[in-house]
Design brief:
The complex is a heterodimer of chains A (292) and B (111).
Chain A lengths: L1 H14 L1 H25 L4 H12 L2 H9 L4 H20 L1 H30 L28 E3 H10 L9 E10 L2 E10 L3 H5 L5 E2 L14 E4 L1 H8 L9 E4 L2 E8 L11 E4 L7 H4 L2 E3 L1
Parallel strand pairs in A: 3-8, 5-7
Antiparallel strand pairs in A: 1-9, 2-3, 2-6, 4-7, 5-8, 6-7
Helix pairs in contact in A: 1-2, 2-3
Chain B lengths: L12 H11 L2 E2 H11 L8 H13 L3 E7 L5 E7 L1 H28 L1
Antiparallel strand pairs in B: 1-3, 2-3
Helix pairs in contact in B: 1-2, 1-4
The chains are: A alpha+beta (292), B alpha+beta (111).
Chain lengths: 292, 111
Amino acid sequence: MAFLGNLTGGLRSLLRRESVERELDEELSGYLEMATNERIKHGMSREEARRAVRLEIGSLEATKEAVRTAGWEFVVETWWQDIRYGLRRLLKQPAFTGLAVLTLALGVGATTTIFSVIYGVLLDPFPYVNSDRVAVVQIQDTAVARPVGRTAFPLQEFLEYQAQNRVFEEVIGGSHEDVLNTTGEGPEQYDGAYVTPNTFRFLGVPALVGRGLLPEDAAPGAPPVFVMSHKLWLGRYNLDPTIVGRSFILNGVPTTLVGIMPARFTKFAADLWRAVPLDRSNPDINRRSFRL
Amino acid sequence: MAEKAGDLVQGTLDMLILKTLALEPMHGFGVAARIEQMSQNVFRVNAGSLFVAFQRLQRAGLISSEWKATENSRRAKYYALTAEGRKRLKSETQEWGRQVAAIARILEASS
């Protein structure tokens, strides 16, 4: 109640200053007149009385000033005056202003860029759970003088790593695949990624809408599902949350969209992810290679 | 606390205004005159502090104001106590009594 009264009272002074000022004026001159009359009643002459009152309450302006500067709105008003004064001064010196703005813009821009890089590379490079314990394996033939080794592995080899691994808690893999989405307006091509069924559980990033891929999604006979990237969701579907649950024809197979990942989840820089069953007997999957 | 005779003890002006308005709604000069008269001219109320106090009390919702005609058919802003103000006056009066009694005890003990 008190806070509200203070707020509305101050706002009234700010927004309707003339009428508030006039009211105060009238109130104070009334006060002055009554004080003068009171003294006349006690036998002073009008002149004497007026002088005595002036002496006693000081100048009317000072009193008004005291009332005007007592509320919080006076601080706001002072700021506003300072801001306007500053702007006027800046407008009078366009060359200096331009230079100052340019300097600030460059400074802010450079700082923002540097911090974005530092944030993304050093402070918080990956959104994944325990990302400091994630490693990428490559196989290098030391007899060959090449700086980098092989990072992609056929399914058979990948499964051996998964089976014989004693060092890592879990091994995930996957790679790019082109995905055609058949729509009523014609096909669209997306940069897809197929991933081992444990990938989303391993990375531990919760979906923004819906859910991520589960190991069960790759089980035999499980309905085909996929998860979409934030980038595609924003760029193609305008962040429409109702598309989750809809069926898309991906590479000729009706596939249900079960979730959308947050913007920083960019595994394989893909538009969408599908789980691939690790089935040695399936010749199609057998041909694929897996990057850890 | 009082720098010269007639200055109010700090923080008591609000209480005196509330007390004055508890009797009947009053305009600014009436409040000042009433306080001077009731204090038998011990207290002089400075107009600046008075109107600042009115503004503060009104914003705190303790008093309300209304333009009315005076007995001399002049227009004046009359202030009246709100229910909130009545409550505040009661609690401040009690607190004041407690403090005065305490100060009196201290002064008696040390003299």
